UniProtKB/TrEMBL annotation:
PANTHER family: GLYCOSYL HYDROLASE, LP05116P
Provenance organism: Streptomyces hesseae
Catalytic EC class: hydrolase
Family indicated by similarity: Belongs to the glycosyl hydrolase 1 family.
One Pfam short name: Glyco_hydro_1
Keyword field: Carbohydrate metabolism, Cellulose degradation, Glycosidase, Hydrolase, Polysaccharide degradation
Identification of the protein by name: Beta-glucosidase
Amino acid sequence: MTVDFPPGFLFGAATAAYQVEGAAAEDGRTPSIWDTFCRAPGRVLGGDTGDTATDHYHRRAEDVRLMAELGLGAYRFSVSWPRVQPTGRGPASPRGLDFYRALVDDLLAHGIRPVLTLYHWDLPQELEDAGGWPERDTAHRFADYARLVGEALGDRVELWTTLNEPWCSAFLGYAAGVHAPGRTDDEGALRAAHHLNLAHGLGARALRTVLPPGARLSVALNPAAVRARTASPGDQDAARRVDALATRIFTGPMLRGAYPEDLLADTAAITDWSFVRGDDTDVIRHPLDALGINYYAPTVVSAATDNPPPRADGHGGGEASPWPGAGGVAFHRPPGKLTAMDWAVDPTGLYDLLTRFAREAPGLPLIVTENGAAYDDKPGADGTVDDPERIAYLHAHLEAVLRALGDGADVRGYFLWSLLDNFEWAYGYSKRFGAVYVDYATLARTPKSSARWYARLARTGRLPIS
């Protein structure tokens, strides 16, 4: 038996610039915070860098042909800020923009919709040297950058995403220090979260001034599907705290124009939030045309005890926590099957998020902008790569999308993470999320069995249901 997705439902795949492009010092590109972070001893597993990554910069045409062979309806990619605006200020680099012009043209020529993300974590190092996201000026620099890209590509790209997972940028980068730029400053992380929100609003405003009327604006968040370990008041309050820090810190100002009062109270010992000025929240609450949801696994929490377990929140093993103001919360590994990232396989979390935002933001279309899993994929003797665990993962999560659609959620598309095996941030090249296997020695691409499975789904819109 099969179940059909609605007509026009968009099936795509996603990547991020630093993870796939390579060409880190070519055609005027300058270092980002990830180039710097990778060169700090002990920051990235194996000392890996994105200098070459999967060489998408030089293999663009090959990769687009591969997308077409797989029947993808859309490709979600990010623009490298230091490639387009090398210092984070001033005019755009023509050579940097030329790469994205060529990419978009190739996609359109193959009938693939380009879905553009402006920021996927690669802040120009010069802006970090000036203070980074904890500084208000960075939000204004982002708006200038957004306008430059909008002017160059607005005639060919319909769907624009301002930020990808600002929670990771703020809290993994500035509180836990396990992502670039590797700082551990709770107050700075909260400032960064606000200025990322402000960048979203200012960037959306800038784009509206240069994009044609039919263009659509979105943001891609990674809201937490938080589960209290028990029904006890302490565990329920732990879930509330984490929901405020992971989700409502962004959806509050973006969707309702205000930060949650409980978030402000929870973090009052860290900051008085005086960095929120004037009409900031009105700027942040810029009308959206779609909301992107990135989901991988649920978050299980409880009230902390005298002997709390090691933090199992799925965000690295650093000593500093990415949860400012949540010192009384313990994080637990969910039960059941795990991926190679030690993340739980639990599609009910995706269903819960889609139906939650259908309730909380009625009328706002939703897109699953990232979903996927890492497994220890290896080629067989005949060179093929069989990954049945990934197929099972994708199948279960697409079933969850169908269930959410059936319960009234207005979900317009699904983007598999990721198109290619690639540089997985602090894990280097040790984790493979791709539907396409990449031999890092030769950079040869081999579609895995999951890619063929997903291609059938993308072409037919039909999910087999056992």
